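Sat 14:20. Reprocessing the chain from the morning session after the first attempt stalled halfway. Input below, unchanged.
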Amino acid sequence: MMINDIQRTKIVATIGPVSAKPMKLKMMYKAGMSIARLNGSHNSLDWHINTIELIRKTLPELPILLDIPGKKIRTSVLKYEPSFNNLDEITLTTENGFDGRKKISITSSDLHKYIKKGDVIYADDGTLKFTVKNVIDRDIIVIANSKGKLKSSKGINVPHITLEGKLITERDKKMIKFAKEVNVDYVGISFVESALHIKKIRKLINSENPKIIAKVENKKGIENLEEIVKETDVIMIDRGDLSTETNIESLAINQKQIINKSLKFAKPVIVATEMLDNMILNSYPTKAEVLDISNSILDGATATMLSGETAVGKYPIESIQVMSKISKSSIMHRDHIFFGEDNKTKSDVFGSANAIKDLCLSLPITKIITITVTGFAARIISSQMLPQPILAISNNKNSARSLNLLSGTKGIYYDTKFYKDSLEHIPKCLFYLWKTKNILSNDMILLTALGYPGSGRRMNIIQTHYVNDLTKTFSWK
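Finished this time. Tokens:
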């Protein structure tokens, strides 16, 4: 990817049967895919292993997100996916082993204990609605509120019902262990309701990678939003579950609230669910979808996500191309508004970032270079939404790859020692960037790094250079 093509708003594309092919992956990347997502609720672990190996071989610098189901209730894998009409009677059951013909098994073993006659059940991101007619032993008899089809591994939501049980299930532990073994860059955790939940996941991971994406998708997640945002690495707004677990009328307000809170603490935020749903079967988006993507980006979303569009849809490449075009158009408008206002955040964390922003808007800076081990500096600068591309160079391979999620950022791995008692590594990093043509002689760069680290994580070095001057000073060849 050329430097000028670094995306300001990233695109997360779900990989499925139609896209898990070398040539298709390359075409999706060229179209604008920034992160590959795998849905842990679908397919076998062997399929995920093979797909991760395929992605790593085909696109080695592409970050991979593995979504972990968590406490989310789903229909089981069904041999028969029943179609039904309005007012038809269907039987859900918490017993295992039913294939969809007589009954539909669900992944919760306890839902029948908490549900009663008259309760409403939603399925498949709220597109299907049922009313509970009766509960007999472990069977939940429901009446369909519309015509539809209930498919395998689709989400089941019962608003305002809280199931008891462990915060982290045995299945979660198995999936996190798997995520570490296959070295994915991010894990998506469903139904995060507190900072404690994230802390327990982080303790299980027990390393810098994979990083945690907390999915905010119910009322408790909204209520505890600030503590969740502070504790996680990335936020995802799962609008399918959020719309059914809260009120669909409040969905836009909740989305704006989550984005604003994420930006306040400089945390990347992904907007997901049905962004280009029409393009699963058609080669064009609806006007409502175009407006949805544009508004999400104008509000400050770091990334937008495609699910069925790229996993099972007929037009995976076209979907990414459309999303990329909408993104670029929205970014141009956002820049016009954003840089015409005084949006500086008054805090210690953002002090250096504000200074960098001023320099980038006052000088003919073409690229921002941040030398970082963990990626903290890149994340803070990225949150400023500057028009210049950010080159985040790290000596940690996993950190470098994961930085490709950040807005306008390219993560670059360079195997060298970062010194604590000297700045010797800084010219080495710059030479590597020049040698690899990431910076060119006609560039004016802004460099930021942490020199002589002590307390805090602030960026205490800010320099501006013409690359042509550096080539002469250091006799680069």
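The first strand starts at residue 10 and ends at 14.
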